[in-house]
Design a protein that fits this description.
The chain has helices spanning about 15-20, 35-45, 60-70, 85, 90-95, 110-120, 150-160, 170-180, 185, 215-225, 235-245, 250-265, 295-300, 325-340, and strands at about 1-5, 50-55, 75-80, 100-105, 130-135, 165-170, 190-195, 205-210, 270-275, 280-285, 305, 310, 315-320. With about 350 residues, the protein is of the alpha/beta class.
Length: about 350
């Protein structure tokens, strides 16, 4: 079975498992787990920030960020397809008591004029706009990369209104590898950053929140409240350290496999692929309206290929370290076979 549903399907290889087994551990709630501390220090240094905090999931990292940046009754701005709005079970309204004002965009990064128009005037019957969220790379838009020039201009806009910026960087690693722009150059424009270890980097679990020492201390308090205070977490942190050294450099292969797969699909008449969106490891493609997408998904499954269904006719395939170029070719052949079968 070729499983292209998500890059969260990565599994630790034998070397990573050895790193987990041999990890030096302590009680992280006391701040005494040496491996977790080392991972936090390395990640903070990688992104040029003062501190980082290991948490169980990207959702927790995003929500802790909003918690330390907002006050109850505030409003945040995000793309209409942002993970923080679309997939996090209304958590901002529950954890931080804030609402999200969404803006539609073509590639996941709303026009700056639209963002400025969405910023609330300082009038008592409006909520305060306190945070603008950026997702880079952008999942639902097909792994698109936010241009660094856009981020710079957004920071200038945010500064002019005294608004904070949060980066949902679950897949920022893919942007870094593809563009050659280092972590510090991306991170310097944001007040808080969330990064994921369990997608392209291949660790079994874990994300980190990166920010100033002050915000991280506040986040540590709320991590405990939300049940994220894990004890001998160095066993998991060791996987993150291994991934940084061994899996991060090879993300480029995932991008190449995604482009190969997309180019093969573009030759199929009843499939539409926007090659401009194939920037990293995610491929979004659109089926002709004559094809039932759920039937298509099921037929692919019966022929050894797992895919994800998005809205309407949109299907998603995601490439990661266990998927080879040969499997990318085979996946395209399965799709072609399914579409040609009665």
């Amino acid at each position: 079975m070729i499983d292209l549903r998500s890059d969260t399907l990565t599994r630790p290889d034998e070397a990573m498992r050895q790193a987990l087994a041999n990890a030096e551990v302590g009680d992280d709630v006391y701040g005494e787990d040496p491996t977790a501390n080392l991972l936090q220090e390395r990640i903070a240094d990688y992104f040029g920030k003062e501190a980082a905090l290991f948490v169980p999931s990207g959702t927790m990292s995003n929500q802790l960020s909003l918690k330390v940046l907002t006050s109850p009754g505030d409003e945040i701005i995000a793309d209409a397809d942002a993970h923080i709005f679309y997939y996090e079970t209304a958590a901002p309204s529950i954890v931080s008591n804030v609402q999200i004002r969404t803006i539609r965009s073509q590639f996941g990064f709303p026009d700056l004029n639209d963002i400025e128009r969405a910023i609330r005037p300082d009038i008592y019957y409006f909520p305060r706009t306190s945070v603008i969220c950026v997702e880079n790379t952008h999942n639902r838009h097909g792994g698109t990369i936010a241009p660094i020039e856009y981020i710079q201009q957004l920071r200038d806009l945010a500064n002019s209104y005294n608004i904070k910026l949060h980066l949902d960087g679950a897949r920022i690693w893919n942007a870094i590898v593809e563009t050659g722009i280092d972590g510090t150059s991306y991170a310097k424009y944001f007040d808080t950053i969330s990064v994921c270890l369990s997608k392209g980097l291949g660790a079994p679990v874990g994300s980190l929140l990166i920010s100033s020492a002050e915000y991280i201390e506040k986040a540590r308090h709320w991590r405990k409240i939300l049940g994220g205070g894990m004890r001998q977490v160095g066993i998991l942190a060791a996987a993150g350290l291994y991934a940084l050294d061994n899996n991060l450099p090879r993300l480029k292969a995932d991008h190449e496999n995604a482009r190969l797969f997309a180019s093969l699909l573009s030759e199929i008449e009843v499939i539409k692929v926007d090659m401009a969106r194939i920037q990293t490891n995610i491929v979004r493609f659109e089926l002709a309206t004559s094809i039932n997408p759920l039937d298509f998904i099921e037929k692919c499954k019966k022929n050894g290929l797992l895919l994800s269904h998005f809205d309407g006719q949109i299907i998603r395939a995601v490439f990661y370290l266990e998927i080879t170029s040969e499997q990318a070719r085979t996946a395209s052949e399965i799709i072609k076979y399914v579409l040609q079968s009665p």
